Amino acid sequence: MKFNPFIAFFVFVLLPQQKFVQVVADLDSDKQALLEFANGVPHVKKLNWNLATPVCTSWVGITCNTNGTDVIAVRLPGVGLYGTIPSNTIGKLKALKVLSLRSNNINGSLPSDIPSIPSLQCLFLQHNNLSSKFPVTFSPRLRIVDFSYNSISGTIPNVDLPSVRVLNFSYNNLSGSIPSSFKRFPSSFIGNPLLCGSEPLKPCSESVVSPSPSPLTDFPSPKTGSQNQHATSKSKLGVGSIIAIVVGGLAFVFLLLAVIFISCLKRKHSGSNGMLKSKISQNDKPNDFGSGVQEAEKNKLFFFEGCSYNFDLEDLLKASAEVLGKGSYGTTYKAALEEGTQVVVKRLKEVAVGKKEFEQQMEVVNR
Ligand SMILES: *[C@@H]1O[C@H](CO)[C@@H](O)[C@H](O)[C@H]1NC(C)=O
Ligand SMILES: *[C@@H]1O[C@H](CO)[C@@H](O)[C@H](O)[C@H]1NC(C)=O
Ligand SMILES: *[C@@H]1O[C@H](CO)[C@@H](O)[C@H](O)[C@H]1NC(C)=O
Ligand SMILES: *[C@@H]1O[C@H](CO)[C@@H](O)[C@H](O)[C@H]1NC(C)=O
Ligand SMILES: *[C@@H]1O[C@H](CO)[C@@H](O)[C@H](O)[C@H]1NC(C)=O
Fold this sequence. Notes:
The relative contact order is 0.06. The protein has ten helices and 15 strands. The two termini are about 35 Å apart. Strand 13 and strand 14 (about 330-335) form a beta hairpin. The protein has a six-stranded mixed sheet with strand order 1-2-4-6-8-10. By secondary structure, it is α/β, with parallel strands linked by helices. Helix content is about 30%, strand content about 15%. The chain folds into three domains: about 5-195, Ribonuclease Inhibitor (Leucine-rich repeat, LRR (right-handed beta-alpha superhelix), Alpha-Beta Horseshoe), CATH 3.80.10; about 250-285; about 295-365, Phosphorylase Kinase, domain 1. One 2-acetamido-2-deoxy-beta-D-glucopyranose binds near residues 170, 187 and 188. This is Leucine-rich repeat-containing N-terminal plant-type domain-containing protein. It comes from Gossypium harknessii.
C-alpha cells in the first residue's frame, strides 16, 4: 500500500493511529502471500487459513512477532504438501525467520526468493523431493539449513556462508567436489553418491569423476597413479614382502590382545568412575533406559523445530534424566542436555507401526 506523502502527513498529524494502519498493511501483505502459497501448493491436510480470521492468532503453523506486526515463522511439517512452491509467495514474507516445510512431498525447484529472504535464520526442508540446483543466494542471517533427503542435483557453488552453523545436504544427488567454502562442514554431504571430497566422502581422483566409480576408490588408496599400475605392483609381490606382511599382521594382533587384556585388568581394578563409563558405553543406564535403546536407534526421531540445539540419541544417553511420569504407553523423562537445553523424552513401550506412520503421528503430536 503506497501513501501519497501529502495525505500521509495529514494522517500522521490528525490520527494517532497512523502506525496501526501501517501494521495492518504489513500483516495484510503477509496474509496475502501465505494464501497464495496455500492455493498454489496442494496439501493433504486442511489448513484453516482464510481471509476472515486473524493470521497471528488462529492460523495453523504461523507465528508472529510479539507486536503482531509481522509473520516471523511458518511451520508446516508433515501436512502433506505436494507439488512445487511458486515464487513470490513465502518469499514475500519480509520478516520471516523460521521456515519449516520438512517431511512433505514438495518437488521441483525451490524458488530462489526463499533461501534469500533477508531475515531468514532457519530453513528446514529435509525429507521432501526437491530437485533444484544448490541455491546460490542465501540470507546473510541464515544459521541452520537442512536440505537432507531431497533430490538436489548439480555441483556445489563456492558461496561463503559465514553465519551458518548447521548445514545439511545429506542424501541428495549432488555431484562434483566440495568447494573450499564448505570444507568446514565435513559430515553435511554424506549420501551423495556422485560427490567427492574428504573423509566421509570418497576422495576426489580422476577415476571418481567418471559416473561409474570403481570399487577401489572406496578406500583412500595411497597415491596410486592409475589402476593399471596398482594391478602390476600387486602381481610383483615378492616372498620378502609377503613375510613382512605376515609378521606385521601377527605383531598387530598381539598388540591388540595386549591392549584388550590391559584394559580388562584396569576395569576390574578401577573405582566407580570406570564402572559408570563402561555402563554408558554399553547403552545400559541404571534405570530403564536400557533394552529399548537399540530399537530406538533405528527410528532416530527428534522433533526439532525452531532454532535451538540439535540433539540425538547420543546426547540423550549422556544427559542426566529425571522421571516425570509413567503413562500407559511408556515413561516420560526430563533430560538436561549439555548446553543447558531441556528436553522431554517419552519412551514408548511397544509400538507396532512403521517408521513413516510413526513420524506422521509424531508430526501431529508436535503441533
Ligand atoms: C515492536 O514494534 C516496534 C516499533 O514498531 C519496534 O521498535 C520493536 O522492535 C517491535 N518489537 C518486536 C519484538 O518486534
Ligand atoms: C511434482 O509432483 C506432481 C505430483 O505430485 C507431478 O504432477 C509433477 O510433475 C511433479 N513435478 C516435478 C517437477 O517433478
Ligand atoms: C521424487 O520425484 C521423482 C521424479 O522427479 C520420482 O521418481 C520419485 O518417486 C519421487 N520420490 C518420492 C519419495 O516421492
Ligand atoms: C542425479 O544427477 C545426475 C546428474 O548429475 C543425473 O544424471 C541423475 O539422473 C540423477 N539421479 C537421480 C536419481 O535423480
Ligand atoms: C545430516 O543428516 C544426516 C541424516 O539425517 C545425518 O546422518 C548427518 O549426521 C547430518 N549431518 C549434520 C552435519 O548434521
